[in-house]
Specification:
- The chain has helices at residues 11-21, 32-35, 49-64, 85-99, 116-132, 155-170, 182-185, 208-225, and strands at residues 43-46, 69-71, 103-107, 136-140, 176-179, 192-193, 196-197.
- With 251 residues, the chain is an alpha/beta fold.
- It has one domain (14-20, 33-229): 3-Layer(aba) Sandwich (Rossmann fold).
- The protein has a five-stranded parallel β-sheet, with helices on both faces.
- Helix 1 (11-21) packs across helix 8, helix 3 packs across helix 8 and helix 5 packs across helix 6 (155-170).
- The chain is globular, with a radius of gyration of 17 Å.
- The protein starts with 10 loop residues before the first helix and ends in a 26-residue tail after the last helix.
């Protein structure tokens, strides 16, 4: 049996780093529930295989904070635009509808290929599905990758994703927010941070340290959006065994 990895980044350092890199969510409209100090209801988390790894510490952190959490992130998929999205969308839409979440967090995927109009239509479709159930959509930018021959032809499309997503958010009347995870990952792929593995050597995925840093950052962003939400102390989730998952095998 694989022994759980103890995160190389100390808990105190994790807290300090996340505080230092926390970004302002911007001037997005605040709902009445958020203004009144409402806590955080059920969280649904989606995206591709990068999000699958991030969902592991997120689940532990939300459980420690007594918040219901469900991940629908998918290996080789999870995208609402691009290859195979037409086939996968009905399942994604059904998962969103049946989850009855109050917040749907969707990390933009490395498969969000297509023309600008196609990307916009995909994010708009996602927004409609989320708001139909009364939830709020939180879009999160994807971490930078080290492109190989598979991704290289689509770099312009991937680079355009955040701007297209922002245009959908800006037109959403406060029903959606875009969070820039560049505060966590930087502007380019970095395999190691502080001398330890932060991203997978495959150039795409995260390692436990990176996934934990992302979790702490996202919890801080949600705390700003929902003042009644109290994130659990990292000591309760950072070394809870999730780092032994086979998803991190290349770390």
């Amino acid at each position: 049996m694989t022994k759980p990895r103890t995160l190389a980044l100390g808990l105190a350092a994790l807290v300090l780093l996340s505080a230092a890199c926390s970004s302002d969510p911007g001037p997005a409209t605040t709902t009445a529930g958020e203004r009144s100090g409402q806590g955080l209801g059920k969280v649904l988390f989606g995206g591709d295989s990068i999000a699958v790894g991030e969902a592991l510490p997120l689940k532990a952190a939300f459980q420690a904070g007594h918040v219901e959490f469900q991940s629908i992130a998918a290996e080789g998929g999870g995208n609402v635009v691009g290859p195979f999205s037409a086939e996968s969308w009905p399942k994604i839409a059904e998962q969103i509808s049946s989850a009855r979440a109050s917040v749907v967090i969707h990390q933009l995927t490395t498969y969000d290929w297509g023309a600008e109009d196609e990307q916009r239509a995909g994010y708009q479709k996602l927004l409609r599905a989320v708001t139909a159930g009364g939830a709020k959509l939180v879009l999160v930018t994807a971490p930078p990758i080290r492109p190989d021959d598979f991704y290289r032809p689509h770099l312009a499309e991937l680079d355009r994703m955040p701007a297209v997503a922002k245009s959908v958010v800006d037109a959403s009347s406060g029903q959606a927010v875009l969070l820039d995870a560049g505060a966590v990952w930087g502007k380019s792929y970095e395999q190691r941070k502080d001398g330890k593995a932060d991203r997978s050597a495959d150039g795409i995925h995260t390692c436990p340290q990176g996934a934990a840093r992302f979790t702490q950052w996202l919890l801080g962003e949600l705390k700003q959006m929902y003042p009644g939400f109290s994130p659990a102390d990292p000591q309760k989730w950072a070394n809870a065994g999730w780092s032994a998952d086979r998803h991190f095998a290349q770390c």
